[in-house]
């Protein structure tokens, strides 16, 4: 067989295996998440890393190509932290982790999830700043971070998210001013309330956007 034919055969073999490699990496990322979490009610009991892919795991939804597109762990009585490996779920569209006891910083690697449409992290104990990397989530429509312990200012980079329809950061400890550009022009006061150091809409040219931080 000619060398070119052998090379073509090898490429075909790699393409055949690539979905398995992809879904296995997603399974590895989810299992790494599981190891970070305390799960007293065993909602993650079905997360078996020996399976070919995570598509049969409870609370995980896949598309027709066996890529993980939803993670539904809202109100699941879990606690712990998130790690950078969650950014490996490259096809994820919905991340639902609301009303748990997850603490620590929100990983900046979530900004790698370019297909993300909805992210609900509200009702946890997240701290630190809202990652500026969220500005890369151009498909994002719903971002709810309310009822956490987040600090710092609202990143001005988020004003570039033209598809953003719902944004809620109420009941945190944010500071500075509220953006007024892009989608932020339509967000109402309740989306920002109960942040004692958040000083109202940004006054461009008069005070810095992080005034009071």
UniProtKB/TrEMBL annotation:
Alphabetical list of InterPro entries matching this protein: LRR_dom_sf, LRR_N_plant-typ, LRR_R13L4/SHOC2-like
UniProt keyword Nucleus, yes or no: no
Pfam family, one: LRRNT_2
Disease resistance R13L4/SHOC-2-like LRR domain ranges (all copies): 71-171
Keywords: Leucine-rich repeat, Repeat, Signal
Domain of life according to the entry: Eukaryota
Residue ranges of domain Leucine-rich repeat-containing N-terminal plant-type in the record: 24-63
Leader sequence segment: 1-22
Coiled coil: none
Protein name, as recorded: Leucine-rich repeat protein 1-like
Taxonomic lineage: Eukaryota, Viridiplantae, Streptophyta, Embryophyta, Tracheophyta
